[in-house]
DNA sequence: CGTAAAATGTGATGTACATCACGCAATCGT
DNA sequence: ACGATTGCGTGATGTACATCACATTTTACG
């Protein structure tokens, strides 16, 4: 499926755009290819864009003072990724984004998103709903972190996204779950 | 300050409404008073509303199978609270909301919010931005849970919301931080 | 293809926290 | 005002997980 069709189908789930509106909407995106391991946003960058994943898997992550990595999100096809705090406030990136596999993404400038949102009511509607879902998912994950032990969180993740098991190195899954790679290894090799 | 003025000032930070639009917007809210300890949303409820806090402190929380409570949010004046998952999807509440102190809130039906969003572009704009901020805050908290120990999280919370120390019982602060009340007690009585 | 680098498995040890148990202090409701 | 409830402090003990150390396996790539 072509980039345009993927995006169209994605939008259509929450908003109704005319053909002309969608053409205009789509014209604001830029197709980009990344190699495995390539950085999309690095800590300290000025963040000007957000990214819609067409193919491949990205990760958004934070590295603390001890060089330990924590993964906020695996972004799979039809997911969006950026450092939204930096993008909205104009501050520098504290969260980084890079490619776990080679990837195809559509890139949208924050300024263009705001322009589109103000020009086309349904686009604003779409982005409101997209963020709603992210907000709810983040709270669900907060509860999971506070409530469940590592094994339970691991099983939940594998039940929801079994493809991660084969497509993503285990130490990254550990960094997402908030456990050490050793502990994760012991969870499924008891 | 009156309810209307508080809400007006709150909205004005992110959206521009004409006087007529704001009157219409405000007319969809219903003022409600709650006593200390009173429930706003209970697990299992059909959730039809969200709540804008004028005065007092609410909490949104989850209780697990072992009857242990986890707090997702303390909602202080000008904050919003609900079970957004249930409100958006029509499912039953898994998250509850109640009042830590006596409280005054403005109550908005989900259906009315959607109507307002579709009728007034700037209202949709406002709600998009409100959720944006919540999304960013939730991710910040995820990182804090994964990255920092209990003492660090406690100090961050007290630095940002010192009023919680005096206004909210310690065991609720513990339930927000994701530690036992005993551990929290030992953090500030070393 | 062959070597370096990255990813994974596994034991030994340490630790931040939970849990249990109890006593005391503050607050609430009638 | 006074008993009941709720909140708080503190010791003793248990445990899930981190960390360190090193071996083994898999993958990347010149």
Automatic annotation (TrEMBL), chains A, B:
Coiled coil: none annotated. Residues 13-71 form the Cyclic nucleotide-binding domain. Signal peptide: none annotated. It comes from the Bacteria. This is Crp/Fnr family transcriptional regulator. It comes from Niastella populi.
